[in-house]
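re: ur question from earlier - yeah i can do the single chain one, its not a big deal. heres the input i used so u can compare w yours
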Amino acid sequence: MVDVINPNQVRKRVPVDACISDEIKQLNMAGVVTLGCCCGHGSAGKITEWENGFGRWKGFVEPPHALIDEESVEQAQKLGYRPFPYTYADGEQCGVSKMYLKTGCLTEAACAQWKEREEQRTPL
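and the output i got, formated as tokens:
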């Protein structure tokens, strides 16, 4: 669970993928409003298919990333990120940018290694 600073969100504590949670916490503490995030679950670059109200889609699984409020773009850039405009399936941008994260697992092997390190670091 991560505390978030998004004033438009009802919940102030949200679940975040474990391997990127520390980075998301740091971003929020630095004043970057995160709107959503995903670690990619070790599947970055794999082909995937999905369907929504706009049709059937085929693409690739994104590497670890976060969606941020457009007002946070400058702060994210100061922290060394390279945000770019995010466009929803309906073609709307809605003041949201996307940026790739510095942490997270790109491959299933990296996820297994991360989990092993965490288990050694945090005894049950």
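The beta strands are 2-3, 13-14, 34-38, 47-52, 55-60, 65-69, 84-85, 96-100. not sure if urs matches, ping me
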